[in-house]
Model the fold of this input.
Amino acid sequence: MHKVVALLSGGLDSTLSVKIMKDQGFDVKALAIKTPFCDFDCGHGCGFKVMEVADRLGVDLKTVYIGDEYIEMLKNPKHGYGSGMNPCIDCRIMMYKEAKKYMEEIGAEFIITGEVLGQRPMSQNKRALKIIELEGDLEGKVLRPLSGKNLEPIEAEKKGIIDRNKLLSIRGRSRKTQFRLAKELGIVEYPNAAGGCLLTDPQFSKRVKDLLKYVNKPTLNDIELLKIGRHFRLDNSKLIVGRNKEENEKIKALALDDDILLETRDYKGPVGLLRKDPNDIMQASMIVLRYSDAPKNKESTIISNIGNNINVIPIDDKILDKYRI
Ligand code: SF4
Done:
């Protein structure tokens, strides 16, 4: 039986691709790639249980996490960003490289993906697919079963290992064909189509841009903080203010030794995390107080984990907007 590696996100497209190749008699080994911005592959499957999907498909699954290396690439992606801070082409190249490593490790002959020609403007046009394949060092070795008939035959098709007639010719953003196919193949549970990973979200992208501007070597801890709270850029620091109990707890858990944690003393309110310059503590305290139950225009007390009490009035909303990221 011919072995093949599938980039599996848990989303419908990659699930269908696996199913199509299994039905052609291939021994499919799935590979799921996590990044700090996406649980699996290309957003379609974010948060979805890729292990359950692999189980239901009856395929082995390996998971690979690309962390620091991904953040480094994000600072200056060779092929640029999409509409947000999503470096789709460079991201896919990294994923392909992981797939290639796995392919060689287990002696597979090619890889398959759920990519659909024309579905995503940046990374799924013919030119981009070619670049990703070339720079991922997988020329002629990537099959996209959902759009196979619209693309050049890959090596394994030329050798007669794959039946090209059984590939599909889906093109574009409409997902009608995929939904129909899912029904025919008995795939009932799959996540709703999403626009991509967190990096495609405009609000989140602003936070990423700000982080990359001010922090030379962002860490995974910096990235995790981007996912929660309200964010403010102060003169020399960054302030993150929790929006609910759960975020307050997360902020405390992510605080590092040099971070300053701020909370209201006498009123219900959020946790604020000030990172970098203690001189910004007054400004930060005024903001934390603004999101508490403390009265406006009246001085109240903020307590910090470095032992001092700060008496301030809540910041004015017009001034606050100037700091908001
Ligand atoms: S949306 Fe783009 S950057 Fe995000 S996981 Fe998909 S390919 Fe990568």
